[in-house]
Amino acid sequence: MVFLDLLFIRRLISKLKNTKGPIIQAFYPFSLAILPLTFEALFLARNGYTQQLFFMKRIFFLFVLAALTLSANAQTPKQDRIANKLFKEKSELYFKFKIENRSEIATFTKLVSIDNVKGNTVFAYANKSQFLNFLEANKHYQVLTNPSQLQQVEMMMDHAGNDRTLNLTAYPTYSQYVAMMQNWAATYPSICTLHNLGTTTNGHGLYTLKITDNVNVREYEPQFLYTSTMHGDETAGYIDMLYMIDHLLTNYGTDPRVTSLINTMEIWINPLANPDGTYIGGDNTVNAAIRNNANNADLNRNFPDPQDGPHPDGLSWQPETMAFMGFADTMDFVMSANFHGGAEVYNYPWDTKALDHPDRTWFVDVGLNYVDTVHAVSPANYMIDFTTAGFDAPGVTNGFAWYEVNGGRQDYMNAF
How many whole angstroms separate alpha carbon 326 and alpha carbon 206? Predict the structure, then answer.
């Protein structure tokens, strides 16, 4: 009887050896080690050595646990070759894949950085480590051109004069951007001060302008934060913020609405939250911009999460993350607008969970007012997506209803 059990185990191991797949291949070396233990366990069981058998079971369990742990992190040589080829000349990959139902989003949002979901098609970014984990799911995928590489944008250095950014026709170099922020603070010192929230890995500043009437006094006024481009390749908001700064400062005292805003609020504007990603190709161009920061981390997955804990992405807090967390701790923002790219939508909390935010009704009302204003002054086909069931209105959605995000700054600012 003992021989027959052992023969069965030998045959099983032979099948494991010839079976394809990362889990089986990872388990096979451990099966060779388990074989003599199994034989000894069978012998002890047949001869009534129960105490010795108890210890053998514990050893057997440890072997199986080690095998399963290794298999969970194993990649096949083929997957390694695929990843090495795709990431030979880039640090992040943009691709799409299909899901059978929306419940799969909960799994894939922990593997990759989802950028958009349209129907059952998921658009996502991944660094090499994330993509290797994605390959374990055996999903068919299609590699796409990174959005920042679809067209070459003009830089201010390509033109005579540095006013083209404010006309929304060119992007500034990094040094020009810093000079613009410094110039505004110097030109309008009574209503504008410049602050650097911190320094990034590549030595760039996280610059923010404070705009209010008594700029050196903390008055009992609502604080509002505008911030943009925490994904380095989503640069439309970057230029919009520069334009907004210029509009507020140059129209103060002449435009009644602008004057009222500055006199009754404390407005903070951070045009570029991920300068390392935006200027990863050098300080003179945004044409090589990437989503992640210089450490290849998605900053909008790097914040403490009300549901998934302090490090939902498994990474340490990045310099940019710590700078904004420290900044938020000193402020009392009543609301913030964080500008992204890739979709025409007003997205409100929560991103990480299906529960309604306590202020959901208020968020929706503000969103509808914003979108109605956009529709009044924009082309007819702008901001009209998100019309299917589950969304609030064209151009307005709860974040989780769109797709789950863990470690996002929006939920951090509302939960902590």
Answer: 12
Q: Are residues 289 and 394 in contact, defined by beta-carbon separation less than 8 angstroms?
A: no
Whether 240 shows a pLDDT value over 50: the answer reads yes
Residue holding tokens 């900044």?
Answer: 327
pLDDT tens-digit readout, 61-83: 444 444 444 444 556 889 999 99
- Helix 2-18 / helix 22-46 crossing angle, nearest 10 deg: 170
**Residue owning tokens 């050196």:** 216
Q: Is 11 exposed, middle or buried (0-12, 13-18, 19+ CB in 10 A)?
A: exposed
List C-alpha distances in Å: 256 to 148, 233, 248.
38, 35, 11
Question: Measuring CA to CA, how many Å separate 135 from each of 55, 76, 81, 329, 345?
Answer: 38, 10, 12, 39, 30
For residue 169 the two structure tokens come to 């026709």
289 to 19, 121, 133, 322, 412: CA distances (angstroms) = 43, 24, 24, 22, 25
Bin 379: left if φ > 0, else alpha if -120 < ψ < 50, else beta: beta
**What value does the mean pLDDT take over residues 136-145?**
95
Q: Are strands 192-199 and 205-211 parallel, antiparallel or unpaired?
A: antiparallel
Q: Quote the mean pLDDT of the chain.
A: 85
Question: How is residue 391 written in tokens?
Answer: 């969304």
Q: How many residues does the chain have?
A: 416
Other CB atoms within 10 A of residue 47 CB:
11
Contacts of 260 (CB under 8 A, 6+ apart): none
Q: Where are the alpha helices (DSSP H) in 115-255?
A: 128-135, 174-187, 236-251
d(CA 235, CA 243): 13
Half-sphere exposure of 203 (CA within 13 A, CB side): 4
Burial class of residue 87 in the structure, from the number of CB atoms within 10 Å of its CB (0-12 exposed, 13-18 middle, 19+ buried): middle
Q: Nearest to residue 395, comparing CAs of 353, 350, 349, 343?
A: 343
Under 8 Å CB-to-CB from 175, ≥6 apart: which residues?
Answer: 283
State which amino acid sits at residue 159: H
Contact at 8 Å (CB) between 229 and 279? no
Q: Which residue has the tokens 């702008």?
A: 382
Q: Compute the distance between CA of residue 372 and CA of residue 383 in angstroms, rounded to an integer.
A: 10
pLDDT tens figures, 321-341: 999 999 999 999 999 999 999
Lookup: tokens for 348: 């409100």
DSSP state of 96: E
Beta strands in 316-364 (DSSP E): 333-339, 346-348
